[in-house]
Specification:
The protein is built from 10 helices and 9 strands. The chain is of the alpha/beta class and about 220 residues long. The chain has a single domain, classed as Aldolase class I (TIM Barrel). Helix 2 packs across helix 3, helix 2 packs across helix 10 and helix 7 crosses helix 8. The mean pLDDT is about 95.
Length: about 220
């Protein structure tokens, strides 16, 4: 089995892809350690600030030393330059908020999992043409579960993951999975501004455990 398929399987098994960005290197490390301790084995750091690349390199060092069974990916990759920079830094997979065929080509050339963000059926079709195995529905808080329910039959067999608007409660998660998604992206609803600014790592641990349990019960 290729690494691409192993990572995809890990996302499907976990049912959740946690994601965040923080300027602080120390804070980023503590959040990664907390997520791992709570049971997360595949995770997305997002390229949303000036410290993203150096922080990612440090996170990879920590991962390699302490968590060898964790898949560490990078998100918010919109350009080939960003893709190449983080591939060189050792990312395991790439997540994007958009469909950029040039980024897809880079990932496909090296057999890397590329998860593009789509908002319309046309974008989904373009993503499929460029071999997207898993498609991120973004912004999911705008589109809602009804969007997935409405388009899933048009794209039979395609795997979808909403990001935005996913909450840590059984009813919300059940609605998303019932609509036809295979996993959910969890950003600020899990790793909130308070968690980052106040170092509420015990709260993050408890919420991550709860989210993972609810997802297994409702997916």
């Amino acid at each position: 089995m290729s690494n691409k398929h192993k990572i995809l399987d890990a996302i499907l098994e976990q049912g959740m892809l946690p994601l965040f960005y923080q300027d602080s290197e120390e804070g980023s490390i503590e959040i990664l350690r907390t997520l791992y301790k709570a049971g997360v084995r595949v995770f997305e750091y997002t390229n949303r600030g000036k410290s993203a690349l150096p922080n990612f390199k440090k996170l990879k060092e920590i991962r390699d030393a302490e968590m060898p069974d964790l898949y560490l990916g990078i998100g918010t990759i919109k350009t080939p330059a960003d893709a190449n920079a983080f591939i060189e830094a050792g990312t395991d997979f790439i997540v994007a908020p958009i469909v950029n065929p040039a980024v897809a080509e880079i990932a496909n050339k090296i057999g890397m999992l590329w998860i593009p963000g789509c908002m319309t059926p046309t974008e989904i079709s373009i993503a499929q043409e460029h071999k997207a195995m898993l498609i991120k529905i973004f912004p999911a808080n705008i589109l809602g579960p009804e969007f997935i329910s409405s388009i899933k039959d048009l794209f039979a067999g395609q795997l979808f993951m909403p990001t935005g608007g996913v909450e840590i409660n059984a009813e919300n998660l059940k609605t998303w999975f019932k609509s036809g998604v295979c996993a959910v992206g969890m950003g600020s609803k899990l790793i909130s501004k308070d968690v980052m600014s106040k170092g509420l790592y015990d709260e993050l641990f408890d919420n991550t455990k709860l989210a993972l349990e609810l997802i297994q019960q409702n997916k």
